[in-house]
Write a structure and sequence with these properties.
14% strand, globular
Length: 284
């Protein structure tokens, strides 16, 4: 992240979530606020620009982003059933869960954690779209060079004694291994029943030649945006790291599992397809 500059990848992710709402039927992930939060100009561009049938890479990315949001909110529902009373969205970007959530603050407190510049930009977007900020939401701007996640959350009213669920989407590839494990160890220190969903990029060597080409193209785009990939993980090694940190129940979904769960009965060909990234659910 550049100082005082909102994340460009956050806008691109939000555009793909919004595109899923208008291009794909049935929708894997329902988000009635997705088009509003990206801004009027971006929404008008999406509505007026036909999808290129041959752009398979774009469709695969859109499918993955829709699936990971659905997976995270499915796992959140399971966590609430276990007694979770706090939901932390790490690297929230233009995520809209807090504004769709109808639970009172006494039942579920939502904390959106992000870089201060990205969070300020989002608040401007919300105001422009007329999206009200609910009483159950707390914004947590964090500059990780100056403070820790734990201290920033506690300053915002986070209660470490309560079961908490975290979503952490589209973030770990941009972090160092040390920063990633520091966050996971913090989550694992919370009460039993707490958990996290995150996505991660797999090692390039495990990909097919075509998948390596797709990864290289994507890595080049995000690097030009000033947000280069840093972290690639091997599934078995990650599982061992999570168990060592204190997580007990793990579910790792690769592309085949994601497609089977969310896209198996479709007739339009929408699917994740490539194996560039996995989804992980880890529970304390």
């Amino acid at each position: 992240m550049k100082e005082d500059t909102p994340s460009r990848t956050a806008q691109r992710v939000a555009m793909r979530r919004a595109a899923h709402q208008i291009l794909d039927e049935p929708r894997v992930f329902e988000d009635p606020l997705a088009m509003s939060v990206i801004g009027r100009d971006a929404a008008d561009w999406l509505r007026s620009t036909p999808e290129t049938p041959g752009d398979r890479a774009s469709r695969h990315l859109r499918a993955f982003m829709a699936a990971r949001s659905r997976f995270a909110e499915d796992e959140l529902s399971a966590a609430i059933a276990r007694g979770a009373a706090q939901y932390v969205v790490l690297g929230a970007g233009l995520d809209t869960y807090a504004y769709r959530n109808r639970a009172p603050a006494s039942d579920l407190r939502v904390f959106e954690v992000d870089h201060p510049a990205t969070q300020a930009w989002k608040q401007t977007r919300l105001a422009e779209a007329g999206i009200a900020i609910p009483s159950s939401l707390r914004f947590v701007p964090v500059d990780f060079e100056k403070e820790t996640l734990a201290s920033a959350l506690e300053d915002a009213g986070f209660d470490r004694t309560r079961i908490t669920f975290f979503s952490w989407l589209g973030v770990t590839p941009y972090l160092t291994a040390e920063a990633t494990m520091t966050t996971l160890v913090f989550i694992a220190s919370l009460p039993a029943g707490s958990g996290v969903v995150f996505d991660y990029a797999v090692e390039r060597s495990s990909l097919s030649p075509l998948e390596q080409m797709a990864l290289d193209a994507l890595a080049s785009r995000v690097a030009r945006a000033g947000e280069p990939f840093q972290l690639f993980l091997e599934p078995q090694a990650l599982g061992a790291m999570l168990r060592a940190a204190g997580f007990h129940h793990l579910e790792d979904l690769g592309p085949l599992e994601i497609d089977a769960r969310y896209f198996g009965h479709r007739t339009d060909g929408l699917r994740v397809g490539s194996g560039l990234a996995h989804l992980m659910s880890a529970r304390v």
